[in-house]
Amino acid sequence: MNYKPLVTALLLVAPAVAAPLPDAVEVLKTAMEPPAAAYEGEVRVSAVKSAEKRLRVYFAPPQRYRREIVSESGEMSQLVVSDGQAEWIYDKKLGKVWAGEPADPFYKRLGPDEEFDLLTANYDVLLSTGADIAGRASWKLEIRSRSDARLSRSLWVDRRHGLILKSESFQPDGTSLASMSFSRISFPVKQDPALFKFEAPGGVVAVQRLDSDYMGLEEAKAASGLNPKVPTWLASGYVFESLAIIPYRGKSIIHYRYSDGIHAMSLFQCPPRVRPNFGGKAREKVKLASGSGYLSWSEEGNVLGWSSDRSQFVLIAPLTLEILKRVAESIK
Amino acid sequence: MIKMILSLLLMASPLFAQDSRLLKEKIKNDQEKVALAREQWKAAPQRSAERQALRKNWKAAQKQLKEDRLKLRQAKAKEKPKKK
Question: What's the burial of B25, exposed, middle or buried (CB within 10 Å: 0-12/13-18/19+)?
Fold first, then answer.
């Protein structure tokens, strides 16, 4: 038998057979790590009821970065720079610089791998071919709740470098919460080291920023002087991550952080008559079992504020008002 | 020969699993050490040499926690059967 025609036919068919898709969880895992390649580009970030922000970003592995928030005219208004050892945040309008150590997820109580395990326990990750973003081929990842299959986040990941090129997060009702997307990106072989150094402009004094504490619940009382109040009910999949004590005008605020692997829920407990601004927009009054509160919005989700037992509370999460109210009313 | 290699591989797999368990325990211990070192640093008098030394101690404890988490990541990668 002459096999030549058969072999030729097989060779002709071969390119038509699609290459197998990569494993969705592995693509997500790579995307959540800092990329191995240097990059620079322009990013647009938007959130519900907020003006769009434009950023110029630069990155050099393993962990040097520069993010410039720029106005439409291209002028820089805020800057975040890290040389891998220190991080500087410069606000041009306020004329202030804060210096500190860059956040390291490995120092958290819930390390990056533990948080990833939590994510895969709460969410399904689905992969498909994504659209080109800023001229780059991507994989599209859909992160859906395991409990109700609701789409929580979509990610477009660069096929070659594993970098997240675009991200969209959704509110529980399916409407958009926040999004980011590269409008331009390149992967230069070398970056100018000067990009990752910072020198305060003349007359601007750098203020030392506090390092994050990542405390356990048992440490809250001694560290803050407050009587800690925590929720006894949490939305499905959320666990306590850590807490931090924030000094505020001679007093202490407790910041409790909860996570479901991909979303964060923050609860702030403030002493009486302390009402810090958490960046929420356009308040509206809401009714709670303990009295009244207010609802507003931020890039991280709904903001619910209320007072109870001589403490002020603020809860921020991408959850519905009903769920936030249930968390708030369970606080003891 | 192949049999020997296979049995060695089978024997090695539970060893990695044991590594993971030990490392998880060590990470818990590291976290306690980090919390204690931070408490000691915060309790020390402001601008004292002792405070500086205790801060270094806290940072060293954090680094140890990171190293052990990375070791656990490696141990887990070895445990995972390779996809063909």
Answer: exposed
Q: For the segment A312-329, what is each residue's pLDDT rounded down to a tens digit?
A: 999 999 999 999 999 999
What sign for the dihedral angle of Cα A33, A37, A39, A44? negative
Can you read off the two tokens belonging to residue A332? 């003891």
Grouping H, G, I as helix, E, B as strand and the rest as coil, residue A138 is strand
- Tokens standing for A307? 């007072």
pLDDT, average across residues A145-168: 96
CA separation, residue A117 to residues A29, A114, A260 (Å): 10, 5, 10
Residue A202, pLDDT > 90, answer: no
* Closest by Cβ to A107, choosing from B39, B62, B76: B62
Angstroms from B69 CA to nearest CA on chain A: 7
- pLDDT score of B53: 96
Interface of B with A in 3-22 (CB under 8 A): none
Chain B residues touching A215 at Cβ < 8 A: 35, 38
Q: How far B3 CA lies from chain A's nearest CA (Å)? A: 31
Examine the predicted complex and report whether its ipTM is higher than 0.95: no
Local confidence band at A53 (pLDDT 50, 70, 90 cut-offs)? very high
B38 and A213 within 8 Å at the Cβ level: the answer is yes
pTM of structure:
0.85
DSSP for residue A187 = -
Residue type, A179: S
CA distance B78 to B19: 10
pLDDT tens by residue, A282-309 = 688 999 988 889 999 887 888 999 998 8
Please state the separation of Cα A284 from the chain's center in Å: 26
Helix intervals (H) in chain B: 2-43, 49-79
